[in-house]
Amino acid sequence: MPQTGMDWWVIAGVLVAVFGVWIAWRQYRAAKPKTENTILGGNRNRQSGGDGDTVNTIRHGDDNDQSG
Question: 6-58, pLDDT tens digit by residue?
Fold first, then answer.
């Protein structure tokens, strides 16, 4: 059992640190955003995606640049 006020501060600090690690872990494991790009009848267009999944679709287009 904690005896002094300093012991309580150490316990509180450990609990805050554990809570911070838990929040960071949840954000790291969170789903990445999905990007969908669609070109209908376009020419010389550029499509690019973000960190998550990317779906690039071109229908009836010429000279288009895609990246994911």
Answer: 788 899 999 999 999 999 998 888 777 777 777 787 777 777 776 777 777 77
Concatenate the DSSP letters of all residues of 2-62 into one string: --SHHHHHHHHHHHHHHHHHHHHHHHHHSPPP-EEEEEES-BS-EE---SS-EEEEEES-B
Count of Cβ atoms closer than 10 Å to residue 47 Cβ:
21
> What is the C-alpha end-to-end distance of the chain, expressed in Å?
56
Q: Which helix (H) or strand (E) holds 1?
A: none
Amino acid at 63: D
**Which contacts qualify for 36-44: CB closer than 8 Å, 24 or more apart?**
37/66, 39/64
Centroid of chain to Cα 27: 8
